[in-house]
Structure formats: C-alpha cells, structure tokens
Amino acid sequence: MNQPKVDRCNARSCAFNGSNQCRALAITVGEGIMTKCDTFMPSLMHIDEKSRVGCVGACKVTSCALNKNFECTAKQVRIGQINGQPGCLDFVSRTA
Fold this sequence. Notes:
Layout: E1 5-9, E2 17-18, E3 21-22, E4 27-31, E5 34-37, E6 56-59, E7 67-68, E8 71-72, E9 76-82, E10 85-88
Parallel strand pairs: 1-9, 4-6
Antiparallel strand pairs: 2-3, 4-5, 7-8, 9-10
C-alpha cells in the first residue's frame, strides 16, 4: 500500500509547510473523531526541502471510512483549518 500524499496544506505557520505544501516525511492524523494534524509544529522557520512532498504515515481517526488498520486509504489528502486547527479535510464518516 502506498502512503497517500498530502496534496495541499494551508497550515502556513507550521514548520513543515512550504508554499502550501507539506514537507514532512510523514504526518500523523487525529485521535478518535478529531481529524487534526498531530504533526503540526508552529514555527517561524520552515523546512527548505522543496523536492519533498508529505505523506500520511498514520491515521488514528477510527471513525473515518478511509482508515484501515490505522492507515489512510485515500489517494491523497488535503490539510486545512478545522475549528481553528489544521486537520484532514478528506474525512469520510463510517456509516452504521
């Protein structure tokens, strides 16, 4: 299984954000029903690695239909602001 790429990230104050792209090797998303980006690290300094594109390494959002064994099965994800915090915008609720 390939890790899904972070297609876009608008957490501009994150150390791993470069030109609205995630530059972390891998991010961890959420806890339970919260889809926040656990890798978010506020900083005035930013990673200067333009060739690197972030991926989702782990997803702890067990209520998401795209989560299988704590891995995201989406092709790509977008990280944006949810209730004032960076989080996964591609959350799909599991149906009962």
